[in-house]
Amino acid sequence: MDLAGMCQQVCELASETGKWIRHEAETMGSDKVEVKGVNNFVTYVDKTSEKKLVEGLRNILPEAGFITEEGTATDKGQLQWIIDPLDGTTNFIHKVPPYSISIGLADETNEILLGVVYEIVSGECFYAWKNGGAYLNGKPIRVSDTDSVNNALIATGFPYTAFHRMDGFMKSLSHFFIHSHGVRRLGSAAVDMAYVACGRFDVFYEYNLNPWDVAAGIVLVKEAGGKISDFKGGKNFLFGMEMIASNGKIHDNFVATLKQFL
Predict the structure, then answer these.
(1) Alpha-carbon span 260 to 107, nearest angstrom
(2) For residues 53 and 85, what is the distance between their CA atoms, to the nearest angstrom?
(3) pLDDT digits over 19-35, tens only?
(4) What are residue 205's DSSP bridge partners?
(5) CA dist 231 to 12, 178, 194, 240, Å?
(6) At 155, is the secondary structure helix, strand, or coil?
(7) Contact 145, 202 (CB under 8 A)
(8) Least crowded by CB within 10 Å, which of 61, 81, 157, 188?
(9) Which carries the bigger pLDDT value, residue 202 or residue 36?
């Protein structure tokens, strides 16, 4: 399988779909927003973007199945495209960057073979494939060299459901507010992971994540030299609904610290 060539095709599809989303953002209003659940929104842009991506990905790899956020495709296959057509919908609704397209390709063992995160506002395209390295708009990227959590810039996401874990999460925030360079919440997990891959963030952690939020970011961080785990330091991160992605150097220490709270 030509993962490098396929990755370039996926980048082109994400860029094309992202340009359409940028155009639609100009006329987005609250009257076009649907509520899926508590603090969980969807628009016609999410749904149409997903249809465009599914159609394009079927042309690239017809035998693959799909795991999609909006459920527009549910085909099964040994290979699975895992798609978030608009990661950061709340940001998009309010015209606040960033928001992104996230596309990952998983094999039958749930290993991510390639991933693309296209940040729609900036036009930055992050991409990686297994054993091929990680890139931003054609240039190789690497994780940071930060070797201490005290010197790290940390990314996270604020919970909008699963509030039973909020007490521990807030305690972790309080700790990292004091014992780091700072904590940032951008509103797109896919972008957070892409920023870890290129060294802008040193570590990202969040719970209540879905596979489409993180699939592309997993291979980005790994191929950029970083490390991925669940909160216990294990491998249940694609479907386990929790994630730590770091530059690798501070990973074990961050896991040990987070275990005190979550």
Answers:
(1) 34
(2) 7
(3) 999 998 888 665 566 65
(4) 156, 244
(5) 34, 20, 19, 10
(6) strand
(7) no
(8) 61
(9) 202
Per-residue tokens: 173: 């925030």
For residue 209, give every residue at least 6 positions away whose Cβ sits within 8 Å of its Cβ, in sequence order, or none. 157, 189, 241, 242, 243
Give the separation between CA 107 and CA 113, rounded to whole angstroms.
7
Res 32: pLDDT: 60
How far apart CA 71 and CA 5 sit, in angstroms, is: 27
Tokens of residue 70, six digits = 């909006």
Could you read off the pLDDT of 195-216 as tens digits, one per residue? 999 999 999 999 999 999 999 9
CATH architecture of 149-258: 3-Layer(aba) Sandwich (3.40)
Residue 219 CB neighbours (<10 A): 29
| Residue ranges matching CATH 3.40.190.80 in the chain | 149-258
Residue 51 has pLDDT above 70, yes or no: yes
Q: Which of 7-16, 73-82, 123-132, 176-185 has the lowest mean pLDDT?
A: 73-82
Q: Are 261 and 205 in contact (CB under 8 A)?
A: no
Query: Range(s) for CATH 3.30.540.10 in the chain?
Result: 3-140
Phi and psi torsions of 4, nearest 5°: -65, -50
Q: pTM of the entire structure?
A: 0.94
How far is 208 from 2, CA to CA, in rounded Å? 33
Structure tokens at 190: 């896919």
Domain 3-140 is found in CATH 3.40.50.1220: no
Q: Please choose, from the candidates 26, 150, 18, 6, the residue with its C-alpha nearest in 3D space to the C-alpha of residue 88.
A: 18
Q: Hey, which bits of the chain come out as E strands?
A: 33-37, 40-43, 65-68, 80-87, 100-106, 112-119, 124-129, 133-136, 139-140, 153-156, 182-184, 203-207, 227-229, 242-246
